[in-house]
Design brief:
85% helix, single chain, 209 residues, mainly alpha
């Protein structure tokens, strides 16, 4: 607007200097206005062309990024992920229960071993099982084998719980990664379509100039 006003002021000054009437200068005024409009259209066309080039570059970049991605998962089962997450929670709780039992049995077993070791240091050995100082040691000695068997069993259960827990964790992680890849791939494709639409709109604007 300021440039148009400036051009009009300059033209009025030229008319005044030339001593011509505005009627006589009509064709020149129209020509000058046409030149200004042409310059404006050329600027708009250049801006649109620059925008078109940048949009084309963006489309190429997105296509390259999409092609570099691993193939998206064929299908993603959201229901399966929910079920696996619930299974993982149950497996973690089960493992904590077994681990707690293992810890208690291990502690009891270690205490029995210490009691038996103390019993072995007594000079009279196991000749007086009714001696109140030796009762705990003898009881511990009798418990060692059952506790050892129970400990082996609970160790095996704990190992199985860990295997099951890690298996479910792996399955949950795979499903989450599939979900993440699918979302990312879909977002890129949607973004590409939006940029392509922008390019088409730019072309229509350039055609309308």
């Amino acid at each position: 607007n300021s440039s148009v006003k400036s051009s009009k002021a300059e033209l009025d000054k030229k008319i005044e200097i030339a001593g011509l009437s505005k009627v006589q200068m009509g064709p020149f005024i129209q020509l000058d206005a046409a030149k200004n409009k042409l310059a404006m259209l050329q600027r708009e066309n250049q801006e649109l062309d620059d925008d078109r080039i940048q949009t084309s570059i963006e489309i190429t970049r997105l296509e390259e990024e999409i092609s570099a991605l691993p193939p998206p998962p064929v299908q993603y089962d959201e229901k399966l992920l929910v079920e696996l997450s619930e299974s993982l929670e149950n497996a973690e709780q089960s493992f904590q229960v077994v681990q707690g039992h293992q810890s208690r049995i291990q502690t009891e077993f270690n205490n029995c071993v210490k009691s038996v070791e103390i019993l072995d240091t007594v000079p009279c050995g196991d000749k007086f099982p009714s001696c109140r100082f030796l009762i705990d040691g003898f009881e511990a000695k009798q418990k060692l084998q059952p506790l050892s068997m129970e400990l082996a069993d609970v160790d095996q259960r704990c190992a199985k719980a860990i295997v099951r827990l890690n298996k479910i964790k792996l399955e949950v992680n795979e499903q989450k990664q599939s979900q993440k890849r699918l979302v990312y791939y879909t977002d890129l494709c949607n973004k590409k379509e939006k940029v392509k639409l922008k390019l088409e709109n730019t072309g229509l604007k350039m055609s309308a100039l």
